[in-house]
Amino acid sequence: MECPYCKKEMREGFIPATQYRVRWIAGSPKGYWGNLDDREQVWLSELPLLTYKTAEAFYCPDCKTVIIPVKEFQDNFDKLGDKVDEIGKKFAGAFDRFTASREEKDARREAEKRERELEKRQENIKKGKDPWEL
Ligand SMILES: [Zn+2]
User: Fold this and answer.
1) How far is the CA of 23 from the centre of ligand 1 (A)?
2) What is the pTM of this model?
3) Residue 66 contacts residue 12 (beta carbons within 8 Å)
4) What is the pLDDT of residues 54-65, one digit of tens each?
5) How far is the CA of 40 from the centre of ligand 1 (A)?
């Protein structure tokens, strides 16, 4: 990008958004404590959710000026929704596998219990005791 002041080529770079979206807010910063009230704002980056986002920025070292082109961002709350669905499906899959392995364990434990009971009854028969007495 050409610097609009000195017409020299500007340096490419970015402004990181690691916690909040980078944005421009209209008016004076006086009285601003994170409250937007009715202030106009322009998003310069997407919302960093699972990873950082960036605002593309150009710097002119001669004019000490940074220019940030404003882009149209798809609100990434939609993307967050997709991510949550994806994680939900993965979790549901893991839960099903966990449940299946648990049911398998319960079934095995039940079979072992019955086997032990059968052995005990056979022992009782050998000893001349009531086979149903455990
Ligand atoms: Zn310049």
Assistant:
1) 23
2) 0.53
3) no
4) 999 999 999 999
5) 28
- Tell the residue number behind the tokens 């960036």, with chain if given: 54
Q: How far is the CA of 66 from the centre of ligand 1 (A)?
A: 9
Q: Is the dihedral of CA 38, 39, 44, 47 positive or negative?
A: negative
Distance 70 CA to ligand 1 centre (A): 19
Domain ranges of the chain: 11-73, 74-134
At 79 the pLDDT is: 65
> How many CA atoms, within 13 angstroms, populate the side-chain half-sphere of residue 40?
2
Q: Can you read off the two tokens belonging to residue 90?
A: 């993965």
pLDDT in tens, 16-29: 999 888 999 998 88
Q: Which residues surround ligand 1, an ion (CB under 5 A)?
A: 3, 5-6, 60, 62-63
